[in-house]
Specification:
alpha+beta; HIT family, subunit A; 3 helices; binds guanosine-5'-monophosphate
């Protein structure tokens, strides 16, 4: 899948539409999901044009990959999610119902979560 620079998260990164920001550094931006599926539902996105985890890990520079995953962990720590727990999820492609074609990791928490997979 080729990257569409008009996707909604690209627009958020460019500041063209607002977001409810949780965390930002040179590599990543984290913000609250507009349609939360749990009391805590945060999205973390890398600052780069990558559609999916497979695209990102194959094509992004190492400092961006490291910085992105550090940001995911930092958001979990700063949100006091380590205890009692949280879930990380990244959808890719049609079978996973990926809606936005810019890599994003969902962080869910704030309640006892349901089964891992609703198939
Ligand atoms: P996906 O299905 O691609 O893994 O998840 C996309 C997520 O992006 C959904 O949970 C959806 O609620 C969220 N989302 C879509 N548009 C916006 C938006 O404009 N702002 C924010 N904050 N979240 C969005």
């Amino acid at each position: 899948m080729t990257y569409d620079s008009d996707n909604i998260f690209a627009k958020i990164l460019r500041g063209e539409i607002p977001c409810d920001k949780v965390y930002e550094d040179e590599f990543s931006l984290a913000f609250h999901d507009i349609n939360p599926q749990a009391p805590v539902h945060i999205l973390v996105i890398p600052k780069g044009e990558y559609v999916s985890m497979a695209d990102f890990t194959a094509n992004a520079p190492s400092d961006l990959i490291a910085g992105f995953f550090r940001a995911v962990g930092q958001v979990a720590r700063e949100g006091d999610l380590e205890d009692p727990g949280y879930r990380i999820l990244a959808n890719a492609g049609d079978d996973a119902h990926q809606e936005v074609p810019h890599l994003h990791v969902h962080i869910f928490g704030g309640k006892r979560l349901g089964p891992m997979l609703a198939a």
